[in-house]
Amino acid sequence: MPDVGLREWFAVGRAIASGSLLRYDSGASRTALFEREMAAQTGAAHVLAVNSGTSALVAALAAAGIGPGDEVLVPAYTWMATAAAPVQVGAVPILVDIDETLTMDPEDIRAKITPYTRAIIPVHMVNAPCDMDAIMAIAKEHGLIVIEDSSQAVGIRYKDRHCGAIGDLGVFSFNRMKNMNIGEGGAVLTSDERYFIRARSYHDLGSMVRQHGDRLNEPEFVGMNMKVTEMDGAMLRVQLKKVVPMLRRMQKRRAVLADILQHSSEFRVTPHNDPASAVSLSILAPTREKAIELTGRRGVHNRLRDSSKHLYTNWEPILNKRTFHPKMNPWAWAKRDIEYTPDMCARTLEILDRTCIVTLGMRYPTPLMAMVARKLAGQR
């Protein structure tokens, strides 16, 4: 992630000194400028800053009209928010296996579609893009809405298109673990005017005032308060300038290390849906036991099976279909019985059992990390 330092400190200080701390205060401009700048950078017609990536997912689903009785396809490997967001709008998540790219398997997407499926949420995990060509083709064939969860892929490209700006809607996260970091924050992206107006309304309690004049005859509806402050907007403008140079450095480093690791006889480099623009690096061991052994070596960050709430078997509230109140339980409104079991996505578990993340070591010289990679690959 980009460092947070003096540039952010000065930007926030100027926002505070302006006296306009709320984004809709008279004279406020920082958040709106960030939204325009991110739209220009990604190619999306509209960007809406919100207070978290989870809020962005919920607002995107609400904007698309997803609700009770609807089924939403989500990957079995992602942060739990991807599966929880449909529940917040009254829909139910349907779990889809990943393939070796660590993203949604298009063939399992096809297998999980029912007459009640309304949307797909592909997740670009650990900076690795999904096979968006296949996913968009499936969505078009079945009349489904695509909401890209690009929380872990801010600034990443898929075949010269920005992740998050390919589907009908996309979402970003800006928490401290992401490619842009303001502590906590998010954004909704779309090029559909109606979806944007609905998302903007939903994030501001359904208000059609506050400079929201272009409503396209969209009636007011009750929403939430997901707004950001001008201090958030100020930090985001600084972080936006840092993300592309950071990813370029990561791409160069990844290419060097992957070229070394691909010659190993003990494992293979994880396949990628767009190798030319890859910035993430992981390896796939032949067995679970080998992967566990690899985690003890220098240069290996962790085994993905140990990824806590990123793995569906640890989503206790989802597996148990438990909400804060029994009468607000979307599974009771579903048009068929939905059951979850710990082994329902066995292929996902098997792949994560054998996959290890390789650190790029961006704080260290490239020759040093190349030496680490050669040792990891069994080369002298």
General description of the model:
The protein is an alpha/beta fold and 380 residues long. The protein has 2 domains: 6-240, Type I PLP-dependent aspartate aminotransferase-like (Major domain) (Aspartate Aminotransferase, domain 2, 3-Layer(aba) Sandwich), CATH 3.40.640.10; 243-308 and 345-376, Aspartate Aminotransferase, domain 1 (Alpha-Beta Complex), CATH 3.90.1150.10. The protein is 36% helix and 13% strand. It is built from 12 helices and 13 strands. The protein has helices at residues 6-18, 30-42, 53-63, 81-88, 106-112, 132-142, 193-202, 230-261, 288-294, 316-319, 346-354, 366-376; strands spanning 46-50, 71-75, 92-96, 117-120, 145-149, 157-158, 161-162, 169-173, 186-190, 268-269, 282-284, 300-303, 355-358. It has a 7-stranded mixed beta sheet with strand order 1-9-8-5-4-2-3, with helices on both faces. Strands 10-11-13-12 form a 4-stranded antiparallel beta sheet. It has a two-stranded antiparallel ribbon with strand order 6-7. Helix 4 (81-88) links the parallel strand 2 (71-75) and strand 3. Helix 3 packs across helix 7 (193-202). The protein is globular. It starts with 5 loop residues before the first helix and ends with a helix. The model has no long low-confidence stretch (mean pLDDT 94).
Give keywords.
380 residues, alpha/beta, Aspartate Aminotransferase, domain 2, Aspartate Aminotransferase, domain 1, 2 domains, 7-stranded mixed β-sheet, 13% strand, aminotransferase, pyridoxal phosphate, PyrdxlP-dep_Trfase, DegT/DnrJ/EryC1/StrS family aminotransferase
